[in-house]
Here is the input.
Amino acid sequence: MNIPGDDFYALISDALQRRGAQTLQRSLYLALRAAILDGRLQAESRLPGSRIIAGQLAISRNTVNAALEQLTLEGYLHRNRQGTRVALQEKGEPGPSSHALEVTLAQRVSQLPPPTARETPVPAFTPGTPAINYFPLPLWRLLYDRVLREEGSALLGYGSPAGELSLRKAIARHLALSRGIHCDASQIVITEGALEGVSLCTQLLSETGDTVWIENPGYAGAKSAFMTSGLRMVGMPVDEEGLRLEINGEHSPALIFTSPSHQFPYGSVLSINRRLALLEFARQHNAWIIEDDYDSEFRYSGELVPAMMGMQKNAPVVYLGTFSKTLFPSLRTGFMVLPQALARAAQPVMGALLRGGHRAEQRTLALFIEEGHYARHLAAMRRLYRKRYRELRDALHAELLVAHRVLAGEGGMHLTVAIDGIDDKWVAQQARQYHLAPAALSGYYLDEQQGQTGLVLGYGNTPASQFAPGIRRLQSLITQWQGGKG
Here is the structure.
């Protein structure tokens, strides 16, 4: 042994005295491992026998043997009839180091848009968050208990990678009535929110280096999915008629991402002429349209806007929906509807891309839809959000003194306010000090420096009583920024 016996026992005794809530066995193991790693016990050093160690430390021999056996199992010690020796440690063995670890993330990850902060309770004006306190939780709990009572452990396995058949059938019937999409369960795949649907589209329908056209400004989550898939993004401008198709002679896209029923964040509806032009372009260039229908259930004037997928037979469109906006975010359940030909082609590989799961939640959601609770909840939320939409517009008119334009149309759960020439990111950041969470409009552009500035105000989660004081606070911050700039 390379250190005197007294030093060895002093080392171990000190560790045992400072062990706190750790067991004697664990403390002995950690003390010996640390001494080996930092070189105080060098390779080929012989340790005293377990009986001697136990006697010197006044602990059980079984405790000593258990610690030595664990170290032997992990390769720190060799034990045989000749005794116990420290094993030879290869260079690079983990141990204390004064050098900071250098980390370089993959370029496609380091360039991702900053994520939206998620807080509980949800701050006022957070975009994309529904009125979760209005969700009928007692009813949901009854349905969930019923599912577990009737099916129990049968739901504990993975299930179909495409999701529970009962839920897919329920979604197909709902889409036929509300969105004009006629499909069957075999065309529907259940996803963990709409974002997983975007990722699946990139895996099924594109190759690394392909081009994807996206709305500019547009949904930041889709940008993240395209970046991590190695796709080249080209922004298409958005105006009051939605995405404006601008063909500039560059590579034809493999994918076109759009939110035609309620563009995010502008709120415009893609006009019929542009829809038809986009469908024709996709057919001619063998491109696929990803239709993000994130909150079209909430329309406050006229009828619901039909989905693009239902406009033409065999349209080259993959339809994405989510229950995160209509029910509650932590449900993490969305779905995608594939054209029949694509569904048949993708079916053999779905098991390699998805594992299924959340079966009890999916069965509960199927009951929630089939028994009419979903339709009633949507109707109640439309009434609530329509009222909040109008009250927020009134508050903006009364309290926001800076020159502005309200861009979002009559639908969804947010209003977008364009305000020229402000540092909207600074305003949004400062607003968090007051439990307000508007989003900076410029952050939704591919090039933030060239985008329109303003604020995206979510009202789904915000009581009307908070509108006027919240807008006054935002006006104060804008005034503060203008004063500092001056």
